[in-house]
Amino acid sequence: MAIAGINVFTDYETKSKHKRLSLGLEYQRTNFSANINKYHVFSDKKLVNSAKEGAWSGYDIKFNGQAPYLPWVKIKGTYYHWDTTTGSNIKGNVLGVDIELTPSVSFELGQENNNTMDATSYGKLTVKLPLGNKQKFTNFAIASKAFKDSSKMDLGELAWVERNNKIKNSTILFYGLTYSLVTSPKSGRVWLDRNLGARQVCTSSTDADCYGDYYQWGRAKDGHESSTSDTTKTRASSITTPAPNKFIINQDKGSTPRDWAKGGIDKRGGLRVAAWKDGGVNDICPAGFSVPSINELKEDTVDFSVTNTATAFSSFLKLPAAGSRNGYSGGLNDRGSETFLWMRVNVSAATDSDAMVVTSTGGAITNRPRTKGGSIRCIKDL
After folding, report:
1. Residue 308 pLDDT > 60
2. For burial by CB atoms within 10 Å, which of 36, 123, 256, 257 has the most?
3. In what residue span(s) does the Inverse autotransporter beta-domain domain sit (predicted)?
4. What is the C-alpha R_g of the chain?
C-alpha cells in the first residue's frame, strides 16, 4: 500500500518581507518515502542592515527508507540546489542514519557537504510527545525479512512533509559590485564571498576574473589598487594623502624604508591598523566589515584547512592564486601560483607588515614590504 500526494507551501520572512512559494510531490509507504519540492521566489531584493538580501529559488529531493533487515534503522538522504543569483549556485547533499531507541525517541547522525563548504557532521536527538505508555528500549535484532510488510499502512505512521525553510541570502552592493556572504564552518564568522574588486567568485584558483584588486598595506581605495594603475616613486607625506591613482614603488630593492609613506610616518603601522578597521580613515571594506586581524584570518585559513593553493581554492572562501604586485617595479608577480592576503595587524618589522602567503607547498604568515600590492578579503565585525 502506498500514498501519493501534492503539497503547497508559502514562506514569509517578517523582517525583510521576503516571500516564496513551494510546490511538492510526495510518495509514502510503510518502509519508504520520498518527496520533491520546488521553491519559487516572488519578492524583490530588500535592503536590510546595509546588506541587500534576496530570497533563494531552487529545489530539493529527499528520501527516507528502512535499512534492509534492520527495521529500527532508517537511511535518510537529501539533495538540494539553490540559485543564489550572485556567485556559485549552492549544490549539496545530506546523508544520515536514524536509529530508533524507543517508540518515541530516536537519534540521527549524518554528514552534510556542498560546493561552498567542507563536509560537516551532525547529531540530532528527537523525542516525540506524548511519550505514551509503551516505552521499552528497541530490541536491536536482525529481522528475518529485509523490509517491513508494506501491504498495510498505519496512517499514524505517516511522516510530516518536510521542506527547506532557508528563504534568503544576503548580498552587499559595494562600489558597483554585488558580493554575497559566506559563513565559516570553523569559526562561524561571516566573510565576503570573494576578494575586494573581484568580478565573480572563483571557478578555479587561476580564474583571473576573481583575482580582484591589489592594495598596498594600509592604503585607502584611491585607484592605486587597480592592477593597471600607474606607478610613482614619490612616497606619501601622510597615510591619508598618497598620490591618487598611483602605485608607490621604492627606488630599488636596497632602499629603505620599504614603505609607501615617508620615513618616520606611522613607522610601526599602528595608525594604519586602525585606518583599515570599519569606519577608519582608510576603510576599504563595506559597512560593518573590516580587513581581518591575524587571528581572524589564521583561524579560518592556515589554522583550519588551507595548506596550499589547491586547498585555498577548495576552502569555503574560494581563495584564488592571485599573486601580488611588486613593490619595487609595480609589476605583477606569481599570478596563478601564490595566494597573498594582507591583514590588519601591528607588525614586528618597522617597514614590513604581516600577510598570509600560500604556495603549492604550504602556507604561512610572514612579513612583506608595505609597498607590495596584495589581495583583501573582508570579514564581518562581531
Report:
1. yes
2. 257
3. 3-165
4. 27
